[in-house]
Amino acid sequence: MKYTAGQAAKATGVATATITRALKAGKISGKKDENGSWMIDPSELHRIFPPISQRTPESPSIKQDETPPIAPERGIGSMALEREVQTLRDALNDAREDRDKWRNMAERLSLAPPSPQIAPPRGWWPWRRRS
After folding, report:
1. 10-residue averages of pLDDT along the chain (131 residues)
2. DSSP letter at 3?
3. What are the Polar residues biased-composition ranges (predicted)?
């Protein structure tokens, strides 16, 4: 008996979207029937997604697309990395503020009326000899 995508999701405990993504990505193989429903061989499905009955209670169930939970105890190395990340974020924010200030100044200068040209006084020629 072959599974549909919904039946496969129930048999493995993952979302139907996860099953269809795996099918489209080629992680598991299946065929569409005349109605457009996926038909998945159970052995092919359970090659990637174990059945619910085989999961052990002491190992928590983590879906394929789910991020594992973060452990509450963190080492000194991770705290140093978090400080470094915060320092880089602050530097990025400062750079963005500077960029915005320069952009505003450039816009103001491009919209400002041109400054009048100051002409030399009449009768003044730099090559004229003065007595």
Report:
1. 89 90 89 89 88 62 57 71 92 94 90 72 64 58
2. B
3. 53-62
